[in-house]
Structures are given as C-alpha cells and as structure tokens.
Amino acid sequence: MLVKILIIAVVIALIMYVVLPKRRRVPAPAVSRPKGKGRLALMLLTSSAMVLFILALFCALLWLGGLSGIITGGGDVLGGTGLLRIGGVLFMLSIACAVAAWMKRPR
Question: Domain ranges in the chain?
C-alpha cells in the first residue's frame, strides 16, 4: 500500500514538472527586497502569525471535540471553556503578528 502511494506521488510530481512552466532565477529589484534585520523581522512575524493561527484552530478543534464527546476531557480545561479562551488568545496574537508583519513589509 505504501509503495502504491509513493508511486502515485512520484507520478504526480513528474506530471507537475512537465506541465508547470519553468522558473527562472530572476533577481527581484533591490527596492522590493528587505535587507538584514528588516527581512528577519518580517519572516519571524509572518511565520509566528501562521503558527499561532494554526494553534488557535487546533485549540478550537479540541474544544469542539470535547463538546461532542469524541475527545475525552477536551473541554475540561478551566471550567469547560478553557480551550476556547486559549484559542481566542492565540488568534488575537496571530492577528497582532500579522498586522505587525504587514506594517514591516517593504513598500
């Protein structure tokens, strides 16, 4: 079964390699590319925003699973709505990181 999945993945990769246009390494203009600390800060803010958003969705999923009884004890954190609160805080932090990354983007 695993061999079949790997063969399908290789066939799809080969089809994409043949069908999709080739990428050429064209350097972007120096104005649009942030340098040094600005680029590092932008990458850190965008990646942290994405990770925090995924964690918020995961907390909401665990909370919903605890409510439906699929996941045992999933909603019993901090009086039943703890995971929802934690997910909300994570979501707000992800929005704050995304706004900060948007402000740091190159003009």
Answer: 36-107
